[in-house]
Design goal:
By secondary structure, the chain is an alpha/beta fold. 39% of the residues lie in helices and 18% in strands. It has helices spanning 23-33, 57-69, 73-76, 81-87, 131-144, 192-197, 227-231, 287-295, 299-304, 349-370, 375-402, 406-435, 447-450, 466-484, 489-501, 524-536, 540-558; strands at 3-4, 10-18, 38-42, 93-94, 97-102, 114-118, 127-128, 148-151, 157-163, 167-172, 177-185, 211-218, 242-247, 250-256, 268-275, 309-310, 315-316, 322-323, 328-329, 332-334, 340-341, 519-520. Strands 1, 2, 3, 8, 9, 10, 11, 19 and 20 form a 9-stranded mixed sheet that branches. Strands 5, 6, 12, 13, 14, 15, 16, 17 and 22 form a 9-stranded mixed sheet that branches. A hairpin with a 3-residue loop joins strand 9 and strand 10 (167-172). Helix 2 (57-69) runs parallel beside helix 10 (349-370) and helix 14 packs antiparallel against helix 15. It is globular, with a radius of gyration of 23 Å. The model is unreliable at 557-562 (pLDDT under 50).
Length: 569
């Protein structure tokens, strides 16, 4: 099979990547940097509107790891606010915390019913990504490294034919045909590969149910400047992070871009409303009318949006959840949001994409060199993505069930906190161990980065820790019993807190098992107590993980990041 390249000569690409929305261009950049002949097809012209903007510390650690593992320094600019504003776009905002404010319909917000996770001071501020700028930038990075990037309606993939022995043939709406030895579809819900091969599960093989409407807005009052926000002061200003307003049957996000103390480019906010369609079924109201109706139930949220207006038409979805009966097959892989999606809750999307790219990229690079494109080589990428989707499904189900009771939500959100903190620490530990192999990229030991793939629970920050991996299913089961009326919310909350208290791998000083400790904030006193616990009481593997992660994080403060070089095609 052959196709015509831009120079008119016959070209067979090693890898064809479908989709230009973050995962696709990150993967294409990594592959092209390694000398893999890479084609990227994106049907929408750039720049384009997209959501998925919160680069939480877990995702920030992952993007640093991918940048350094594959020697693509441009990616590292996405890890911190300072670098992304300098190298990519001044329209990105700061993410200093993840905040959760609990509301009861028709009532004023109770100041004691809030929860906040504040980034540790040793972590440079990660950003809220202004995706239309970031995605366009990433496509440019892939192109500069030598990927053949095609965008616009003519690059829409309308046909895929897979041959297990030789690769795949991609046909575009513009009439072009491309031959690739392997195809990766990162095209999201409407992935052409899933459509052409009939890979979508109907109904979705996920328990969670939600739908969403979202846009960008201006004129959104910082929550800290509203009466309720002033009454429930966080450990960090609410407007300097990703804010979640949670209520019975749904949640609302506010992701500000013009929120850093100095140098703001604008005052745009990403705003989205996610609802359980079984509690809030679709009506004939417009998205704006539906948004206004929900604000009418939440008086303190309504005050935040009193002067707000949408900058673009609202996007409204049906059920958000979708999945695939098969993710990896002969000569193909569905990647990131093409494999499935659960819910935007807890901002897992960027981390999921980066974990998938990290696991997939080295296999593709090896296959391009040795010619082994066997399905078995790529099977762990399917296991990883199924593990990520299942864990998020458990947590989303539990959280939506808990949105109706503060005590229960206060317990469930700690399960997420533990996962995101452990995830970031595990990545920092692995990245630090990898970099300690020396300055020569070719001489570093890649095995330390592959080790987690051999654990019993792929995708878990502690893949071989049975206690940790039981927490998500436990929370989901208990919350389902609350919904069914067979267990009280108080009893379910107590059992979740008890399970957290039994985690001998968590420093007690962090307060995760204390319902009254509503601000996960690593103050100097907490750090000292946690360090003492690591030295004297922590299990050996936990002590090694935390010590290695802190060595990496403290090293970051002394590390002077390289300015991205301008690669030659």
């Amino acid at each position: 099979m052959a196709s015509s390249g831009r120079d008119g000569r016959t070209t067979v690409y090693d890898v064809g990547v479908i989709g230009g929305g973050f995962a696709g261009p990150v993967l294409a950049s990594v592959l092209a940097r390694a000398g893999v002949r890479t084609l990227l097809l994106e049907e929408r012209a750039q720049p384009r509107f997209a959501v998925g903007e919160s680069m939480v510390p877990y995702a920030s650690a992952l993007v640093r790891l991918v940048a350094r593992r594959y020697d693509v320094p441009e990616l590292e600019s996405l890890a911190t606010l300072k670098a992304v504003r300098r190298d990519v776009s001044p329209r990105c905002g700061v993410l200093r915390n993840m905040g959760f404010v609990f509301h009861r319909a028709g009532l004023r917000q109770h100041p004691g019913e809030v929860y906040q996770v504040v980034n540790p001071s040793v972590v440079p501020d990660p950003p809220h990504l202004f995706r239309q700028d970031v995605d366009a930038h990433l496509l440019g990075v892939a192109q500069r490294y030598g990927a053949d990037v095609r965008t616009g309606s003519g690059a829409r993939v309308d046909g895929v034919r897979v041959d297990p022995d030789s690769g795949a043939r991609l046909r575009t709406r513009g009439g072009a045909e491309f031959s690739v030895r392997y195809v990766v579809d990162a095209g999201g819900r409407h992935a052409p590969l899933a459509r052409e091969l009939g890979l979508r599960e109907e109904p979705a093989g996920l328990r969670h149910h939600s739908r969403c409407l979202f846009t960008h807005m201006t004129g959104v009052t910082p929550y800290d400047e509203t009466p309720a926000g002033r009454a429930s002061v966080g450990a960090s200003p609410w407007h300097e992070g990703t804010l979640h307003h949670v209520f019975d049957g749904g949640w609302l996000w506010v992701i500000p871009f013009g929120n850093q103390r100095r140098g703001s480019a604008d005052a745009v906010c990403s705003v989205g409303l996610t609802l359980d369609p079984r509690r809030h079924p679709v009506t004939d109201r417009s998205p704006q009318e539906e948004f206004a109706a929900v604000l009418g139930l939440l008086p303190d949220v309504a005050r935040q949006f009193a002067d707000a207006r949408a900058l673009r038409p609202w996007t409204a979805t049906g059920r958000l959840q979708y999945s695939a009966r098969r993710i990896v097959g002969d000569r193909y892989c569905l990647a990131a949001h093409a494999a499935g999606f659960v819910d935007p809750l807890y901002s897992r999307g960027l981390a999921h994409s980066l974990q998938t790219v990290d696991s997939l990229a080295w296999r593709l690079i090896a296959a391009a060199r040795d010619g082994d494109w066997s399905t078995e080589r790529f099977r762990p990428v399917e296991d990883l993505q199924r593990g990520l989707l299942a864990a998020h499904d458990d947590l989303a189900c539990a959280s939506f069930a808990a949105f109706g009771d503060w005590d229960l939500f206060n317990a469930v959100v700690r399960v997420w906190t533990l996962g995101t903190v452990l995830g970031a620490l595990a990545v920092e530990n692995a990245c630090g161990a990898y970099l300690r192999g020396g300055p020569d990229h070719a001489l570093r030991d890649d095995a330390v980065l592959r080790a987690p793939e051999h654990g019993r629970r792929p995708g878990s920050p502690l893949p071989d820790n049975d206690h940790y991996n039981s927490l998500g299913p436990l929370a989901r089961t208990l919350c389902a019993e609350v919904t069914a009326g067979t267990r009280t919310p108080g009893d379910a909350a107590g059992r979740i807190f008890a399970a957290l208290g039994a985690a001998d791998y968590v420093p007690p000083a962090l307060g995760l098992a204390d319902p009254a400790d509503r601000f996960f904030h690593n103050t100097p006193a907490r750090i000292v107590r946690a360090a003492r616990w690591v030295r004297t009481e922590a299990p050996e593997d936990t002590a090694a993980l935390l010590t290695g992660a802190m060595r990496g994080l403290l090293g970051e403060r002394l590390h002077r990041p390289r300015r991205p070089r301008r690669p030659h095609p």
